[in-house]
Amino acid sequence: MTRLSRRTFVRLAGGTVAGLIAAPAVVTAQARPRILVVGGGFGGASAARFAATRYQGLDVTLVEPQARFITCPYGNVLLSGRRTLDQITHGYENVAKAGVTVVQDWVDGIDAAGKTVRLRGGRTLGYDKLILSPGIALRWNAIEGYDEAASAIFPHAWMGGDGSQITLLRRQLEAMPDGGVVGIAIPANPFRCPPGPYERISMIAAYLKRSKPKSKILALDAKDSFSKQGLFQDGWKELYGDMIEWVPLGKDGKVVRVDAKEKVFETEFGKKIKVDVGNVIPPQSAARIAIDSGLTNDSGWVEVKSSTFESAKAEHIHVIGDANIGAPMPKSGYIANSTSKQAVAAAMASLRGEPVPASPVYFNTCYSHVGDDYGISIVGVFRPAEKGFVETPNSGGVSPRGPLAEQANQRKLEAQYADAWYASITKDAFG
Amino acid sequence: MQTTNRRILLSAAVATLAVTATAVAWAQSPAKPAPLTAEACLGCHGPAAKGQDGVPGIRGYDKAEFVKVWGQFRANERPATIMNRIARGYTDEEVAALADYFSSLK
Q1: CB atoms within 10 A of CB B67
Q2: Do A377 and B82 touch (CB under 8 A)?
Q3: Domain limits at A200?
Q4: Is residue A424 part of a domain?
Q5: What are phi and psi of A258, to 5 degrees?
Q6: Which of B15, B16, B25 sits opposite A32 (nearest CB)?
Q7: Which residues 6+ apart lie within 8 Å of B11 measured at CB?
Q8: A251 and A347 together in one domain
Q9: How confident is the model over A31-44, as pLDDT tens digits?
Q10: B53: which chain A residues are within 8 Å (Cβ-Cβ)?
Q11: Are A148 and A194 found together in one domain?
């Protein structure tokens, strides 16, 4: 079978079709390889557009439940007042224009053996390769009392969703009296966007400094160190004085219980803290569909092969973005974008019987805004290791530290380049 | 019966095509494809590598100059915000491939 030339195959297929079902058009259509992408965030949208534009003759379908995607990146900037929700919302029109069939629906089940997915709307879609980019799920009640109902009082604002969470947090900050306390509960690793909580602290501080300067931010952290820590803490001191108090795990920073009605955070050692506005970023896992499909391990995340992103547990399913176990790569939009292309290229190589594209490089830059004209970054250049991933030695790292007087130009340029990154990466993903 | 036959036939068709590397059905686009490594550059330098909001364009960059400037970033001999940190992460072969690709864009 595998030695058949294409001409022989066409003759055989034509004969069979004519004899049995007399519908050669069906065969022609189905002979196009089907790349099915599930999840339309940075990973999925990038994968779909890349597959449709780099390769010809494919059927590329993207299934995403929402009509529009609201990015997590720059959601924090919305809190400071420098962006609006519209400016961080992206449609799929240009993904469709690239030749992708965009289906607005939920995927309720994956049949890895049969290579199909079941949509909530009732349809079943077949695939030759599945690119699964489902994002994260919040682990409700991992912090006692923090469930979906509680998130209507203490927003997490950690998934773009329909924009209601980040909008709620912004409204609560606007309604808070000057002199109020903003409590932020931050999870242990791993979680989506490692520098995100600290950029959020910064952007809330930027708003409060302007509008409610007597207020405080109390950040309670379930770990003892964090991404770009020195840079963030330098910036907080320089820009916001003593407005921000960060409490690490070692100083009873872990929030284990919340009472949303009473607006109370409770720590591991029983300290109860009343807040005026509470932002709870809960522990996370891979999205539900990855768990329900048996792709996750005990950690709640998906183990993948480091050169193809194929699931360690299921052939033909490539899992990209925040749902996979990618450490030391961060769960970031840039990594989702960068790895999506190797995943698609590897899937295509497999379909063509070619070797996996050799020596891939996975690239990340995460910018964070600390204040107006004050940006910082972390760069990472990663490669597959024997097991998992490794950062390229002597490369990457964070922006230089140093007093603002000396670093003002660097901070200003990085804030500007952060905006450029957002424009570029969203164009690359969403067109 | 018809459905079953069709499914078997279609499976066979897919399996056959999958191992027929010369099949034209999904040939790569005719334009010179970017090396996968170059894809990451577009996240800041713009989708067409034309530059974005002050981030310089690298489309059509002179090949020799590209390699030279990269070396200066790598050695911290050129003012940089993040390119110095990036440049140290790539091998000479990878830089040569990037230079080759971006210089080829008109």
Answers
A1: 17
A2: yes
A3: 140-282
A4: no
A5: -130, 150
A6: B25
A7: none
A8: no
A9: 899 999 999 999 99
A10: 416-417, 419-420, 423
A11: yes
